[in-house]
Amino acid sequence: MVEIPIQEGRAPFTIKSIDEPCFTYYKIIGDLSSGAPPVIVVHGGPGAGHEYLLPFANLWREYGLPVVFYDQIGCASSTRLRQKAGDESFWQEQLFQDELDNLLDHLDVRGGPGFHLLGQSWGGMLGAAFAARRPPGLRRLILASGLASEELAARGVGLLRDQMPPDMQQALNEAEEKGEYDSPAYKRAMDFYRRTYVCRVEPFPPSELLPAFQHMGEDSTVYRTMYGPSSLRMIGSLKKWTVVPRLLNITAPTLVYNGEYDTSHDVAQVPFFELIPRVRWITFPGGGHFCHLEGGGLRGRILKVVGEFLTQKETAGAR
Fold it and tell me: Which domain holds residue 141?
């Protein structure tokens, strides 16, 4: 068996309002000098860390594409900034755009063959905003279970909640009205929500998905400040967030995908499909928010769709 090159490192990241040295942890699967564009993988959460996206490491073995995973600032193996908990002016999209720019420069991947960008969930939101700037070197873009705006995200979650049993809907409503999220009824409803719409496999993949929950449980600074106390409502610094007006600026060929039962509902994908000039949209039957971790052949099918999209020849259009 051929040994797969793996490299880990830390990219120094200067933040003007932070006195201490900061860094972004990254892991490279494959060889950046191979001549193929690396795939930069942007995780969700915010604050989930990279581990749940590791199945995409197979893009190196099966398609010869180096893959770069990284932990965004404030979570997992990158610099933690607990002192910024609750500071909504600090935890903004621009911080993470700056970090991604810094990582690309550190790895020196803008020239030569350039790079691809794959963002999942919040990573898809960030990826769309980043691509709208037309960054030098960006070849192709994948928005996996992303969201075009907070408003559309809320609308989609509302449609999913309407399908839940009435007693569970009531438990969710009462928790939000009171701001109390510790009741047994609320926890039962959220467990149903997660297993129906978030990850539709039993048990949750322990080596891939559980680290994301652990990262956000150990340090909820980023998630609670940007998203809020409940995964059903964005009431933090992402409230009123939207990338919709910027989508027409995306020139890279783009693949959009989500799952049939995804928390990133179809209604939150429509602007991607309608406004990005060169785009393809796939909804995977039976899939949830983490459909790349799920069974029924979904893992293999998603990797195949992603790999073929990233290695196909350029075409004039993608609709």
Answer: 6-154+200-311
